[in-house]
Design brief:
71 residues; alpha+beta; 1 helix; 24% helix
Length: 71
């Protein structure tokens, strides 16, 4: 879970001023996946009226790593 310091309610509420913050979240997720040597991963934002944390955050979901995966 990657949470920005700047509070943005949702992707639905994002403005052009939030582009840098959202871009940094995506790059941070990618950097983390590379550091953990993930073979594949998904970056996920929840939007809309869902029962979740009421601010924008990024989920990083993955499967196997190079060390423990099928090589």
């Amino acid at each position: 879970l990657v949470i920005p310091k700047k509070i943005i309610r949702s992707v639905d509420d994002a403005t052009p001023e939030n582009i840098q913050t959202i871009g940094e979240l995506i790059l941070l997720g990618s950097k983390f996946a590379k550091n953990k040597k993930l073979l594949g991963y998904r970056l996920l934002f929840n939007c809309g009226n869902l029962p979740h944390v009421p601010h924008l955050h990024l989920h990083l979901l993955s499967g196997e790593t190079k060390e423990f995966g099928n090589t």
